[in-house]
Amino acid sequence: MTIRNLTSYRALASHFEELKAQSMRELFAQDVNRFSKYSRQLDGLLFDYSKNRINDATLNKLIALFEECDVPMWRNKLFAGEKINSTENRAVQHTALRDLENKSSVLTKKQLAVLLLVESFIEKVKKSNITDIVNIGIGGSHLGPMFVCDALQGMASPNLNVHFVANVDGEEINRVLSKLNPGNTLFIVTSKSFGTQETLTNAKFARKWLLKSKNIKNEDHFVAVTANVEKARKFGIAEDNIFPMWDEIGGRYSMWSAVGLSIALYLGIDAYKGLLDGAHEMDEHFKNEPADKNIPVLMALLDVWNQHFIGASAHAILPYDIRLTFLPAYLQQLVMESNGKSVDRQGEPLDVASSAVLFGDVGTNAQHSFFQLLHQGTHNVSCDFIGVAKAEHDNSQQHDMLFANMIGQTQALMQGQTLEEVGESEHAQHKVFSGNRVSNTIILKELSPYNLGMLLAMYEHKTFVHGVLLNINSFDQMGVELGKRLANNLLDKIQNEKQVADEDSSTVGLINYYKNNK
Fold it and tell me: For the whole model, what pTM was predicted?
């Protein structure tokens, strides 16, 4: 049965007809306790959802949808390690990687063994002449480690630099290598299959660059994180330098595995374990709290409400902290690769919207970029504003200014500005803001590894719940495969002068233009 046919979903549709004429201004005016009623806190994290177009009846009906979609059952299956990734016949066990006290979990035991290997390797690198680490990976093997290393760089070792290469565009790896000394560089090749085209192409280029220098051995400067040990060995990586991955861990959830090696090297093992601990705290919250107090559950339910009824087909991620610059890119993969689907678990077409389109940028830069559309455009966009109460720097005046900007934007989106408030002035209509535009505000007390782990796990679980509500498999990503396959076929034709006339006219024209001008 599709979500549209559920009793609770139909009840929400009827309820929206009753609520749609009411503004959030009115809702705040009617209830002075609206913030305390519609906000939740967990160990250094605040989630304020009061600036959504909801009331108590909305939440009750959303929770009824949560129950009717059997989310608690699917949540139990997730934590029990059942094979909920049905199209690939795999369990989904990234939560086991952060449950370090669970002595009964086979995967947790494997994780503890890997953490010991990582810790030992960190000590080995400290005693070497390595000054620069280059992580070569793409997707989940790139976005998570890059985001965390950038966010927490204030904690990094002063003797170590970290760089990230993902794109098959040769310009990227050349830019990185041009700054480095081969004798002081360690490459981490991260690929579950050790067959990802972009990653292997960059790794081969890095090896060629490295071996141009005399007296440098490939095995001293390359490590691998992979599930395919044999392929890593054939590449020339020493057995002791291969860190395992597992099929139960999807790419966009792999930062919690040995894929986080670059994080542990750059920030230290304690910081990496702090990240795991914070994520585990959110796991426990998600697993045990009732729906009306459960932050990821509430976020997912509000997503459905805002997309399907309010009409918000796009969602903006707006971190008001420069340390969270890469958060929008990280969440784009997590959310859109997970829930950008058009069929349900049974292979039937979806009859409702799937994932919202995610985009974003860091505040206050974004205010001078696309906020005009958020406030006065015809598109309906929901927003997450993310701030950090405690700054790492001592310029409190600027931090106050940053925070005032964040809160002011959420207030402006909510209340808008009427023609009466504008008053008689030139171009008065152009100064009217409709308001009634929804947003969540998330505030971390500080940007510690622990709190960052909580934040990322919160979004993971929100994405999972949203997928269950839509009855889709959030853990495969088959939509990326066709383009890759076609690209391999075209590459062969480009490089080997094969006939391209059998392709469509656009493809033929583009290839010919490229070959004539390269």
Answer: 0.96
